[in-house]
Design brief:
The chain has 160 residues and is an alpha/beta fold. Helices cover 57% and strands 12% of the residues. The protein has helices at 2-5, 33-42, 44-55, 75-88, 99-150, and strands at 20-21, 26-32, 58-64, 93-96. It has a 4-stranded mixed β-sheet with strand order 1-2-3-4.
Length: 160
Protein backbone atom coordinates (compact mmCIF):
# COMPACT_ATOMS: atom_id res chain seq x y z
CA UNK A 1 0.00 0.00 0.00
CA UNK A 2 2.61 2.58 1.04
CA UNK A 3 4.92 1.77 -1.89
CA UNK A 4 2.09 2.20 -4.37
CA UNK A 5 1.29 5.51 -2.70
CA UNK A 6 4.88 6.55 -3.42
CA UNK A 7 4.34 5.77 -7.11
CA UNK A 8 5.96 2.34 -7.27
CA UNK A 9 4.48 -0.58 -9.13
CA UNK A 10 4.51 -3.71 -7.04
CA UNK A 11 4.02 -7.32 -8.05
CA UNK A 12 2.80 -9.69 -5.38
CA UNK A 13 4.10 -13.23 -5.64
CA UNK A 14 5.24 -15.98 -3.31
CA UNK A 15 9.04 -15.83 -2.98
CA UNK A 16 11.02 -18.93 -1.93
CA UNK A 17 12.59 -16.77 0.77
CA UNK A 18 12.55 -13.13 1.72
CA UNK A 19 9.67 -10.71 1.48
CA UNK A 20 10.73 -8.08 -1.06
CA UNK A 21 12.94 -8.56 -4.11
CA UNK A 22 14.22 -5.27 -5.49
CA UNK A 23 16.36 -6.91 -8.18
CA UNK A 24 18.22 -10.12 -8.87
CA UNK A 25 20.86 -8.85 -6.43
CA UNK A 26 18.78 -7.36 -3.60
CA UNK A 27 16.42 -9.37 -1.41
CA UNK A 28 14.84 -8.02 1.78
CA UNK A 29 13.44 -9.92 4.75
CA UNK A 30 11.01 -7.58 6.52
CA UNK A 31 10.14 -8.09 10.17
CA UNK A 32 8.01 -6.25 12.66
CA UNK A 33 9.47 -6.08 16.16
CA UNK A 34 7.00 -8.71 17.35
CA UNK A 35 7.84 -11.04 14.44
CA UNK A 36 11.56 -10.52 15.08
CA UNK A 37 11.16 -11.58 18.71
CA UNK A 38 9.06 -14.62 17.79
CA UNK A 39 11.59 -15.57 15.09
CA UNK A 40 14.45 -15.35 17.59
CA UNK A 41 12.57 -17.45 20.17
CA UNK A 42 11.65 -20.15 17.65
CA UNK A 43 15.07 -20.20 15.99
CA UNK A 44 13.44 -19.36 12.66
CA UNK A 45 15.38 -16.10 12.21
CA UNK A 46 18.75 -17.75 11.70
CA UNK A 47 17.32 -20.22 9.16
CA UNK A 48 15.54 -17.42 7.26
CA UNK A 49 18.64 -15.25 7.15
CA UNK A 50 20.86 -18.11 5.95
CA UNK A 51 18.37 -18.78 3.14
CA UNK A 52 18.28 -15.05 2.39
CA UNK A 53 22.06 -14.92 2.12
CA UNK A 54 22.12 -17.97 -0.17
CA UNK A 55 19.45 -16.42 -2.42
CA UNK A 56 20.87 -12.96 -3.05
CA UNK A 57 24.15 -11.12 -3.49
CA UNK A 58 22.82 -8.32 -1.33
CA UNK A 59 20.48 -9.60 1.36
CA UNK A 60 19.02 -7.19 3.91
CA UNK A 61 17.03 -7.55 7.11
CA UNK A 62 14.56 -4.66 7.51
CA UNK A 63 13.08 -4.34 10.99
CA UNK A 64 10.07 -2.17 11.77
CA UNK A 65 10.61 -1.36 15.44
CA UNK A 66 7.15 0.12 15.93
CA UNK A 67 8.28 1.65 19.19
CA UNK A 68 7.36 -1.52 21.07
CA UNK A 69 9.13 -1.63 24.40
CA UNK A 70 7.74 -4.92 25.65
CA UNK A 71 10.35 -7.63 25.18
CA UNK A 72 9.30 -11.24 25.49
CA UNK A 73 12.98 -12.07 24.95
CA UNK A 74 15.95 -10.72 26.86
CA UNK A 75 17.38 -7.65 25.06
CA UNK A 76 20.83 -9.30 24.97
CA UNK A 77 19.35 -12.18 22.96
CA UNK A 78 18.02 -9.69 20.41
CA UNK A 79 21.30 -7.77 20.24
CA UNK A 80 23.30 -11.00 20.07
CA UNK A 81 21.17 -12.30 17.19
CA UNK A 82 21.50 -9.01 15.30
CA UNK A 83 25.27 -8.90 15.91
CA UNK A 84 25.56 -12.48 14.60
CA UNK A 85 23.55 -11.67 11.48
CA UNK A 86 25.56 -8.54 10.77
CA UNK A 87 29.08 -9.56 11.74
CA UNK A 88 29.12 -13.32 11.12
CA UNK A 89 26.69 -13.70 8.22
CA UNK A 90 27.36 -10.28 6.68
CA UNK A 91 23.68 -9.36 6.41
CA UNK A 92 23.00 -5.66 6.90
CA UNK A 93 20.24 -4.86 9.38
CA UNK A 94 18.20 -1.70 8.85
CA UNK A 95 15.80 -0.50 11.52
CA UNK A 96 12.90 1.80 10.74
CA UNK A 97 10.05 3.09 12.89
CA UNK A 98 7.16 1.54 10.99
CA UNK A 99 5.59 0.64 7.65
CA UNK A 100 5.68 4.17 6.20
CA UNK A 101 9.37 4.63 6.96
CA UNK A 102 9.99 1.09 5.66
CA UNK A 103 8.27 2.03 2.39
CA UNK A 104 10.41 5.17 2.09
CA UNK A 105 13.56 3.16 2.75
CA UNK A 106 12.56 0.54 0.17
CA UNK A 107 11.79 3.30 -2.35
CA UNK A 108 15.23 4.87 -1.85
CA UNK A 109 16.95 1.47 -1.98
CA UNK A 110 15.04 0.53 -5.15
CA UNK A 111 16.07 3.79 -6.83
CA UNK A 112 19.71 3.30 -5.86
CA UNK A 113 19.66 -0.28 -7.14
CA UNK A 114 18.04 0.86 -10.39
CA UNK A 115 20.70 3.57 -10.84
CA UNK A 116 23.51 1.10 -10.08
CA UNK A 117 22.15 -1.39 -12.62
CA UNK A 118 21.82 1.38 -15.24
CA UNK A 119 25.46 2.36 -14.69
CA UNK A 120 26.51 -1.29 -14.92
CA UNK A 121 24.60 -1.80 -18.17
CA UNK A 122 26.17 1.38 -19.60
CA UNK A 123 29.63 0.20 -18.59
CA UNK A 124 29.05 -3.24 -20.12
CA UNK A 125 27.78 -1.72 -23.37
CA UNK A 126 30.87 0.52 -23.55
CA UNK A 127 33.15 -2.41 -22.74
CA UNK A 128 31.52 -4.60 -25.39
CA UNK A 129 31.98 -1.86 -28.02
CA UNK A 130 35.59 -1.39 -26.94
CA UNK A 131 36.15 -5.17 -27.22
CA UNK A 132 34.64 -5.22 -30.73
CA UNK A 133 36.82 -2.27 -31.80
CA UNK A 134 39.90 -3.90 -30.31
CA UNK A 135 39.19 -7.21 -32.09
CA UNK A 136 38.69 -5.35 -35.38
CA UNK A 137 42.02 -3.52 -34.91
CA UNK A 138 43.80 -6.78 -34.11
CA UNK A 139 42.29 -8.36 -37.22
CA UNK A 140 43.54 -5.48 -39.42
CA UNK A 141 47.00 -5.67 -37.82
CA UNK A 142 47.09 -9.45 -38.36
CA UNK A 143 46.30 -8.99 -42.08
CA UNK A 144 49.01 -6.31 -42.37
CA UNK A 145 51.57 -8.56 -40.68
CA UNK A 146 50.59 -11.51 -42.88
CA UNK A 147 51.08 -9.27 -45.92
CA UNK A 148 54.52 -8.16 -44.70
CA UNK A 149 55.59 -11.73 -43.95
CA UNK A 150 54.34 -13.14 -47.24
CA UNK A 151 55.89 -10.32 -49.37
CA UNK A 152 59.13 -9.34 -47.59
CA UNK A 153 60.53 -7.63 -50.74
CA UNK A 154 57.74 -5.07 -51.00
CA UNK A 155 57.86 -1.67 -49.39
CA UNK A 156 55.50 -1.20 -46.51
CA UNK A 157 54.70 1.99 -44.57
CA UNK A 158 55.47 0.22 -41.27
CA UNK A 159 58.95 -0.80 -42.43
CA UNK A 160 60.64 2.52 -43.23
Amino acid sequence: GYLQGLGFQTVFTQLPCGDIRLSERVLIERKTARDLLESIKSGRLLHQCRSLKASAQRPLLLIETGGESQYSVHPNAVLGALAHLTLDLGIPVMMVKGPLEAAHFIAVAAQREHDALERLHGFLATTEKHDRDLKASISVARRELDSILSHPDQQHPWLD
